[in-house]
């Protein structure tokens, strides 16, 4: 593992490029200095040997310094997306897990979902829509994504008296990946999650609401063809007086056209929202 180590001398921060190795005989980690980099505030990417330049730990460290070029960070994000796309289309779960683990060393699950996985899945959808990707390849990518999320989704015990959130899609909406991301992220925030996606019949959703009495309902719509089905579902659920949030690719840039509808139906539309921002909105709705 390669990382940057800092040392404070007379109030000034200085950095070293360090490599950590495991000594089997001594059964301990040994740190070897690869290069002295000078003042931390003056380090640029060019000071890092090329073979270590785009390591996640290096990019993350430099991203936090004032002199770091955001274009370099974007280059790292772009490269990660390209590799993710390659592994998804190949159905390579092992390679995908490796990307996730490396990315997670320096950032959050939410950032991985928002900046990498969600963007790549959008790209795959566009490729398929434009006839540049076979439906079989799209299914391989989707199934591999779901397997990755399932491996990430370690179910944590909800907090005592945890609020319950029900996640669903309208009947006919079969895109489950956004809901799986929501389930993973919100469960890690301590909420109890009931995920009924994809395409649960309205009757079944109403039954769960009556039995489980969730504190909040999240509705996800990916395809615009399913917006009307979403409206019908919302009309069926509004009488429960449970707060509802509507989001998904299909309703982005539609808040103006749907404004009168959501005001009439106890509904709030979430547009182009990161998972971190969504968590704040959820928290506000549950107060």
UniProtKB/TrEMBL annotation:
Q: Which UniProt keywords apply?
A: Cobalt, Metal-binding
| InterPro entries for this protein | Cbl-bd_cap (IPR003759), Cobalamin-bd (IPR006158), Cobalamin-bd_sf (IPR036724), Met_Synthase/Corrinoid (IPR050554), Meth_synthase_dom (IPR036594)
Q: Note the PROSITE patterns from the entry.
A: B12_BINDING (PS51332)
A single GO BP annotation from the record? Answer: homocysteine metabolic process
Positions the record marks as coiled coil are: none
The keyword Aminoacyl-tRNA synthetase appears for this protein? no
**Entry GO terms, CC:** cytosol
> Looking at the keywords, is Metal-binding present?
yes
Cite the GO molecular-function annotations of the record.
Answer: cobalamin binding; metal ion binding; methionine synthase activity
- Residue ranges constituting the B12-binding domain according to the UniProt record: 162-251
Q: What is this protein called?
A: B12-binding domain-containing protein
Q: Say which species the protein is native to.
A: marine metagenome
